[in-house]
Amino acid sequence: ESDLRFFCSIFFSRSSGNGPDVYKGKICSLKARALLIDMEEGVVNEILQGPLRDVFDSKQLITDVSGSGNNWAVGHKVYGCQYRENIVEKLRKAAEHCDCLQCFFIIHSMGGGTGSGLGTFVLNLLEEEFPEVYRFVTSVYPSGEDDVITSPYNSVLAMKELNEHADCVLPIENESLFEIVNKIHQMINSGKLGSTVKQNSLVTSSAGSAKTLQEKPFDAMNNIVANLLLNLTSSARFEGSLNMDLNEISMNLVPFPRLHYLVSSLTPLYTLADVNVPSRRLDQMFSDAFSRDHQLIQADPKHSLYLACALLVRGNVQVSDLRRNIERLKPSLHFVSWNQEGWKTGLCSVPPVGHSHSLLALANNTCVKPTFIELKDRFMKLYKKKAHLHHYLQIDGMEQSCFSEAISSLSDLIEEYNELDATKGGPRIDPQRLKIAV
């Protein structure tokens, strides 16, 4: 399939016991505070047989056999009710083992039935069971060429739940992930990386040659999403001169409750640990983060309107470097008139493996609107003909009003972004600075 096949709500990892964390190359005492759910057991079984099998608690898995059949209603209405008690029990168990529970992460796909339906059901459960804990959602949106015909229905139905129950959503598009991995391949093949690529890595075949991209390289695409989350949680795991609490992201970047979709960009893009890449100059790294090529959705934030922006930097970077680059970039970026200084910054002293520094930018920006408009258009092409509706309406508790309410919610969201964009051409008012008498 063209989407991530499983989702999990992630807690911070911690060591259990007094033994070494790694022994003879194997992870011994670190356990992810995670619940893995999939209504087809294949993907979860692959994890249990793969190199990360010791990271996840085998008791914190929920699987079925038949899957959701690419149907949001099956995932949300059928499996949601069937597995509700089991999910709540395992969520509570994982939460009880956390020393300091900051937030929940949900990672899910939007195009299929389990990720969209059961994924948003779990989101609702988290709000009911842990109303005071922030809910961050990483949502992988399907491309226009994906192989799930009903993905527009599933995605729009899921978006209504995201609008109402998530605190922050990090939208990611399969197409963008695929293009990023494609760039890595092109640079490897051209020799521009300078580059050494390990044998049998995520970007090479078992023979050591670069993979062809006739089939989408899911491992490498998922690796990019993993690196996004690693950078996002770095301040919680490592020391830094300006650590950023995860809850501060929602507090500072979401001025209105429904406009909580944050466009993410990573630099360097080539954060795969098995690709040796020359480090980018620090100032170039900041410029890259605002370029179209580094966004994890098909968007160009520099030509859209910013409500706020967060920069999470890892490595040997000083606060003065941050401020210098913000001042350098500000003239080329359009911020709303009432939040011209809408920057939130974080510094973590520990860089990613193989790099001297890295940057994750999170932008509350109207550039996300075209993604939603395209999704709405794809939905309406099916909905006008009432195509495939009977598959959904035969599920208990599913009515046609669910579709009309979902598309209405999405239309209202698009209109809110339109109203913001309409203010973009207004005069820029520089806020008055505090004058200090000497």
How would you sum up this structure in a few lines?
The protein is of the alpha/beta class. The protein has 13 helices and 15 strands. The strands form four sheets. It has a six-stranded mixed β-sheet with strand order 5-4-1-6-7-8, with helices on both faces. Strands 10, 12, 13, 14 and 15 form a five-stranded mixed β-sheet that branches.
Give an overview in words.
With 438 residues, the protein is α/β, with parallel strands linked by helices. The chain has 13 helices and 15 strands. The strands form 4 sheets. It has a 6-stranded mixed beta sheet, sandwiched between helices. The protein is globular and about 60 Å long. The termini are far apart.
Compute the gyration radius: what is it?
Answer: 22 Å
Annotation, overall tally of beta strands:
15
How far from one another are the termini?
A: 66 Å
Q: What gross morphology would you assign?
A: globular
Please state the average pLDDT score.
84
Q: Name the poorly predicted regions.
A: 1-18, 195-214, 429-433
Largest β sheet strand count, sense and barrel closure = 6 strands, mixed
Name the strands of the widest sheet in spatial order: 5-4-1-6-7-8
Share of helix among residues?
A: 25-40%
The fraction of residues assigned to DSSP E strands is 15-25%
State the secondary-structure class: alpha/beta
Number of helices: 13
One letter per element, helices H and strands E, the order comes to: EEEEHEHEHEHEHEHHHEEHEHEEEHHH
Strand and helix map with partners:
Elements: E1 7-15, E2 22-23, E3 26-27, E4 30-38, H1 42-49, E5 61-63, H2 72-96, E6 103-109, H3 113-129, E7 134-141, H4 151-165, E8 168-173, H5 174-190, E9 196-197, H6 218-232, H7 234-237, H8 246-253, E10 263-267, E11 275-276, H9 282-289, E12 305-315, H10 319-329, E13 334-335, E14 343-348, E15 357-365, H11 369-383, H12 389-393, H13 400-421
